[in-house]
Amino acid sequence: MTAADPELMQRARQGLYWRLMSALFEQGDAAPNLESLARELAKTTDLPAELLDPKVTVDVLVHRFPKLKPEFSRPLPGFAPPTPEGEAPQPDESPTDLKGTVQRALVVSKLLLNAFGPNTQGTVTAQQYGAWARDVEWLEGALGLPPGSLRQSGGGHGSHGAGPPSGGGGEATRPPIGDDELKAGLAVLEADMIHRMDLREVLKDPVLSERLTPSMALLEQILWDKGNLSGPALQNAKKLIARYVDELSKVLKLQMRQVTSRVSDNRVPPRRIFRNLDMKRTIWKNLTNWDPNERRLYVDRLFYRRTGKKSLPTRLIIIVDQSGSMTSAMVQTTILASIFATLPKVIVHLFAFDTRVIDLTPFVHDPVETLLRTKLGGGNDMRLALDLAAPCIDSPQNTAVVVISDFYDWSDFFSVLRQWKESGCHLIPVGSLHTTGYFSVNPEYAAKFKEIGAPILSGSPKKLIEQIKKVM
């Protein structure tokens, strides 16, 4: 039995991955022989026992054992960056000895165990949550993804207050992972950890609150509990919300870049001045007047460029469901509204509703203040919001109305929206503003909106931006 025995290497790899499965499902006590096998293999191959301990973070591990850092920075099997055109593919780097096989299996196990294992259970402190977020960054890096791609923050900027990534993440080497179950699983874990974390006490400490990584789960928890926050805790909460809003705004502003570019309005005749003269068209249209003998072009008609531009609708009314299931849509809508409010000649109104309605229009330029004034809850009564928004529609043809809800609402709201559309309003119903996780839209109203020519949008905020751009 040699160190390069393929059968021994295969058995060692299988044993270590079986041990990973038992640890992930908290069955270590039921399979103590697998733990013993892992410890013996690590000892035999001179690998540190810390590789087996899920309580030791990857940052700590690579700091204590720098030789392991390249192994954690290597892409996982099947996730290597694509080979540039014209270059030969990289040779197979699969381990060819027992130590390499054990080390690779333990590194993969460490990445998965720290992200999905016992670290996510029990009481969670801010330090533990921050450490878990960093471990997830290492996993994202091994999958060829930038930091934040698998978590709810979606900004891809990694943790805050923890310094630059020490190996996890970095530049993306492939498109975002398509396995929604992996994203959804991490989202559920993160939300559960935050709910178990004593957030009020953490927010009172500026050092601990700085270690928190802004995410949708954390933001939702703050919004649910904001009534119990005051003093330093409230100020630290505002800073966390602002950090998350800034990250998401960068993404949404990139998608909004083209919205302000107006298109020519052919209904407006061109101004007949030299600056607007269309020289190429003038020459082309007068070519029949070319005199070959005199070698002159006689112009009997001048053509000018049209410089009149279509104006944006003067009003954008956004009505959003603020019930608990719509938190993600509420957050992204608030940021979108603040961005639209910066556009010239556009007046933005923002209303949030559950069984009550809040007019957030006075605060629309400040998304942090807007979010802190929302009151997440259950129930839906959209009709209240529509009645409050109705006086804002003074010119239907110049008004766009965006309604964001799951439409599980039994008030008489649809007849009002239908009347608005028939009067000339640009109606844009939206079912959700996120792309991962389960989401349901009332199929009865989905069919009704389709019948009146306003199908419900559902997906990323970019779809909503594109639809508003068409309207504008």
From TrEMBL:
Pfam families for this protein: VWA_CoxE
Region entry Disordered, spans: 72-97, 143-179
InterPro entries the UniProt entry points to: Uncharacterised_CoxE (IPR008912), vWFA_dom_sf (IPR036465)
Ranges of Gly residues composition bias in the record: 153-171
Protein name: VWA domain-containing protein
Organism whose genome encodes this protein: Nannocystis bainbridge
